């Protein structure tokens, strides 16, 4: 009965590979987000979708492409992974101002 | 640039003591929120204070907001070892930035039993 779930929890991959992270929420929220948390724990928003429509798109390289097949899912696909992409990626959802976060996906690019 | 900056970066106290963390921000906001992150976990929402509020309480938490100084503080009273975590403030500007939270760097709180 997890509210916001992400898979995988850990992802170790080589530079240049393409990978996807999946997120699902069972809270019935309309809005979902992707955040990146770097090694210094700084958390920055990347994207936000409302009812499958992109509403926030921060200055993120276009190697990152979010996809929302329905309002309960927001996936993140990353092409041509770089060392600097190593971080923890968090998915979140909200109905109003409070955001509910997933457990995070720890990505390590070697 | 970062909207929220927190102070101190790290705080170490004994169980039963109070913990105070401060957050400063740069632009006008619609609301300010505090989140907790346990090691290796996601963030958990603690409390939200709107720009027209000055103080809010929730259990052992007390949050104040001073919009003239663009600052907020989070007080945890009678701390417990289980309060050990990182605490983040996040601001939301509202308007076209509705839903866009800008986080500070966080305060690492360690409560010793």
Q: Topology, pairings included?
A:
The complex is a heterodimer of chains A (110) and B (113).
Chain A: E1 4-7, E2 10-13, E3 19-25, E4 31-37, E5 43-50, E6 53-57, E7 64-70, E8 73-78, E9 87-94, E10 99-101, E11 105-109
Parallel strand pairs in A: 2-11
Antiparallel strand pairs in A: 1-3, 3-8, 4-5, 4-9, 5-6, 7-8, 9-10, 9-11
Chain B: E1 5-7, E2 10-14, E3 19-24, E4 31-37, E5 43-50, E6 55-58, E7 61-66, E8 71-76, E9 85-94, E10 97-103, E11 107-112
Parallel strand pairs in B: 2-11
Antiparallel strand pairs in B: 1-3, 3-8, 4-5, 4-9, 6-7, 7-8, 9-10, 9-11
Name its key features.
heterodimer; A: about 110 residues; mainly beta; Immunoglobulin-like; 7-stranded mixed β-sheet; 4-stranded antiparallel β-sheet; about 0% helix; globular; B: about 110 residues; 6-stranded mixed β-sheet; 5-stranded antiparallel β-sheet
Structural class of chain A: mainly beta
Instruction: Give the CATH H-level superfamily of chain A.
Output: Immunoglobulins
Task: Name the CATH superfamily assignment of chain B.
Answer: Immunoglobulins
Q: Give me the number of helical elements of chain A.
A: 0
Q: Based on CA inertia axes, which overall geometry of chain B fits?
A: globular
Largest sheet properties of chain A: 7 strands, mixed
């Amino acid at each position: 009965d997890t509210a916001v779930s992400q898979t995988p929890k850990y992802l170790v991959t080589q530079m240049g590979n393409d990978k996807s992270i999946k997120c699902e929420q069972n809270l019935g929220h309309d809005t979902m987000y992707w955040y990146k948390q770097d090694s210094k724990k700084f958390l920055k928003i990347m994207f936000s979708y409302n009812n499958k429509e992109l509403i926030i798109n921060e200055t993120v390289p276009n190697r990152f492409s979010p996809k929302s097949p329905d309002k309960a899912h927001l996936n993140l696909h990353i092409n041509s992974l770089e060392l600097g992409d190593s971080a923890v990626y968090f998915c979140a959802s909200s109905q109003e101002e409070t955001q509910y976060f997933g457990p995070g996906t720890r990505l390590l690019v070697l | 640039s970062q909207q929220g900056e927190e102070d101190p970066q790290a705080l170490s106290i004994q169980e039963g003591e109070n913990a105070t963390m401060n957050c400063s921000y740069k632009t006008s906001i619609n609301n300010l929120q505090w989140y907790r992150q346990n090691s290796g976990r996601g963030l958990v929402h603690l409390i939200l204070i709107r720009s027209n509020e000055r103080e809010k309480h929730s259990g052992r938490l007390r949050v104040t907001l001073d919009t003239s100084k663009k600052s907020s503080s989070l007080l945890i009273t009678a701390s417990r070892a289980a309060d050990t975590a990182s605490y983040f403030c996040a601001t939301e500007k509202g308007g076209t930035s509705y839903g866009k939270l800008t986080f500070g760097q966080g305060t690492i709180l360690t409560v010793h039993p």
